[in-house]
Amino acid sequence: MRTFSVTAKGSAEKCRIVCRARALSQLKEAVGGRSAIVFTDENVLRLYGRAIRRALPDVPVYAMRAGENFKNPQTLFDLLQKMAEAGLKRNSVLVALGGGVVGDIGGLAASLYMRGIACIQMPTTLLAQVDSSVGGKTAVDFCGVKNLVGAFHQPELVLVDPAFLRTLPPREIRCGLGEIVKHGAFDGEIFDRLAAQEDLFDLKFLAGIVPENIAYKLSVVRRDPHETGLRKCLNLGHTTGHALELAGANLSHGECVLVGVLYEARMARTHLDCDGEYLGRLEALCRRALSCDPASFDVAAGANAALLDKKNTAAGRVVMTVPVRRGEYAMLELPFAEYERELARVRRELC
Ligand SMILES: NC(=O)c1ccc[n+]([C@@H]2O[C@H](COP(=O)([O-])OP(=O)(O)OC[C@H]3O[C@@H](n4cnc5c(N)ncnc54)[C@H](O)[C@@H]3O)[C@@H](O)[C@H]2O)c1
Ligand SMILES: [Zn+2]
User: Fold this and answer.
1) Do 303 and 174 share a structural domain?
2) Which of 79, 221, 249, 295 could form a disulfide with 350 if both were Cys (CB 3.0 to 4.6 A apart)?
3) Tens-of-pLDDT digits for all 351 residues of the chain?
4) Contact between residue 45 and residue 52 where contact means Cβ atoms under 8 Å apart
5) Same structural domain for residues 212 and 228?
6) Catalytic residues, which ones?
């Protein structure tokens, strides 16, 4: 078992993160005597419904349809309605049991209901365990833009159990690897462990590396809870990654992040003073984790989608967080036409 306790800088909100086996058995104690709702998705309910009901027999459960397509205001308001119907009060708690989609919507609903109730996150995907459940960012997609509407709301507790990873399809493992590789780009120890590991999909290896990734993300979030500076490094691979997601590249979020890191590392090499040998190793790691063809997407659609990115500060320019050398990142800003040319160039190189 490993426990982290976090109070983000400038915030009174405390969050405890506990990595342990049989975490569901801890839920009853964590909820205590408060009224509650469990929010999950239909896939997770199918797999863990009985275990949830055993852990919290009297608590209503609401399951959304699974997937990013349903990470929208409609699902958010359906959940808020279930919370109202369940008679939740100011001192109630929402348990978000699922992947990053459930965690993001559940966290946002908890932040909105009665101007904020407690939230317990139980992440069941690798991505949610190493990334989305940590740091208090919540959101839904809106008007075709990912995570356009959201809030910062720290969960009071995050319960991380590696046993959930056993039922994850390989593609979802790969999705989490996207964020793990991103952390590895900045944390030398994570990078070395990934580079030395032959089978990146080995569950024992992954269970071991999850707490290290949580610790890394926390070290960033603690210093910059509202992404005014340092936390921007966690956007590595995400400008191009989100653009590909929006352009319908038919890849999961983590796969898009891996492709994004690959492209943005190549762009960094041509525009900035970089350690080429290190970036080469990072690119090799991305390609090892990916199974798809990193060149199969529409360049014009990808470039147009990148223009919508929330990180952009001026019209017609695309801003990226890019790796430059071990443990170091830089911001790279390109005019739209140049970004589109760069996407096309790297795509040709990778064909
Ligand atoms: N808040 C943040 O800081 C942050 C950070 C990174 C990503 N995100 C968000 O996270 C989302 C992606 O999260 P995700 O990859 O977990 O997607 P997801 O929540 O859609 O889960 C992926 C799939 O796995 C299924 N699933 C979940 N747990 C399972 C289990 N134990 N066994 C079998 N199947 C299971 C789900 O039903 C779903 O079909 C994106 O919307 C992204 O924007 C948020
Ligand atoms: Zn991500």
Assistant:
1) yes
2) 295
3) 677 766 655 555 678 899 999 999 999 999 999 999 999 999 999 999 999 999 999 999 999 999 989 999 999 999 999 999 999 999 999 999 999 999 999 999 999 999 999 999 999 999 999 999 998 999 999 998 888 999 999 999 999 999 999 999 999 999 999 999 999 998 999 999 999 999 999 999 999 999 999 999 988 888 877 777 777 788 899 999 989 888 877 788 889 999 999 999 999 999 999 999 999 999 999 999 997 788 788 888 888 888 877 777 777 899 999 999 998 899 999 999 999 999 999 999 988
4) yes
5) yes
6) 115, 137, 179, 217, 227, 231, 235, 238, 242, 253
Nearest CA to ligand 1 atom 9: 100
Give the Å distances, CA to CA, from 268 to 243, 321, 322.
18, 9, 6
Give the position, in ligand 1's atom list, of the atom nearest the Cα of 107: 1
- Pick the last residue of a domain from 150, 167, 184: 167
Taking the CA of residue 139 as reference, the ligand 1 atom at the shortest distance is: 1
Under DSSP, the state recorded for 296 is -
Cβ contact 261:235 at 8 Å? no
Per the structure block, which two tokens stand in for 55? 């852990």
167 lines ligand 1 (CB under 6 A): yes
164 in contact with ligand 1, CB cutoff 6 A: yes
How many angstroms separate the CA atoms of 129 and 133, rounded? 6
For residues 195 and 214, state if they share a domain: yes
CATH number of the domain within which 89 lies: 3.40.50.1970
